[in-house]
Amino acid sequence: NAGVMQNPRHLVRRRGQEARLRCSPMKGHSHVYWYRQLPEEGLKFMVYLQKENIIDESGMPKERFSAEFPKEGPSILRIQQVVRGDSAAYFCASSLYQGREGQPQHFGDGTRLSIL
Amino acid sequence: SQKIEQNSEALNIQEGKTATLTCNYTNYSPAYLQWYRQDPGRGPVFLLLIRENEKEKRKERLKVTFDTTLKQSLFHITASQPADSATYLCALPNRDDKIIFGKGTRLHILP
User: Are strands A88-95 and B4-6 parallel, antiparallel or unpaired?
Assistant: First the structure.
């Protein structure tokens, strides 16, 4: 009965390196969301994906950031050429379906990314 | 666009008392509103959902109200316990059904 699994929990990168964050949704969930959270700030939506499709990436920076949710395997949030400003907690959430029904989102415990 | 306002100052409540947290939104009334709890170093956990046609919702010691006239939801924890100490987030859908979250209110229950 595993919940949303994110790894790694902590990731340290030097400026210019790549960061890959992984998220396995709850069993049976096909909707995945990525959020970014800074200290004392709210959760900021980044991207919404269904299997093999990006549905809404309006919260993603246009450069260096990409996300995927392949048919097999976890969802990946990829940050290329990281900069200090990318340091944050990145949360993944999944839901059973999307729509106006108010389906709750189930969150992982996040990946804390630190850029040296 | 819709904005959510939650009290940014921490709320200190004596154990056993009722804690009341406020969530205000600025524009149109959403079809529903959600409350989540977040502990340090953890992801948010869904607690309750209340729909626009519901005035009040209860779950054990939790109670949520939704006043579309005031554009406000109140979140109550009765008989509060130190284990209730956490940050509580209000969330609601934007016009494009995307969920937006408030910054949260930190609650400290003092023993």
Answer: unpaired
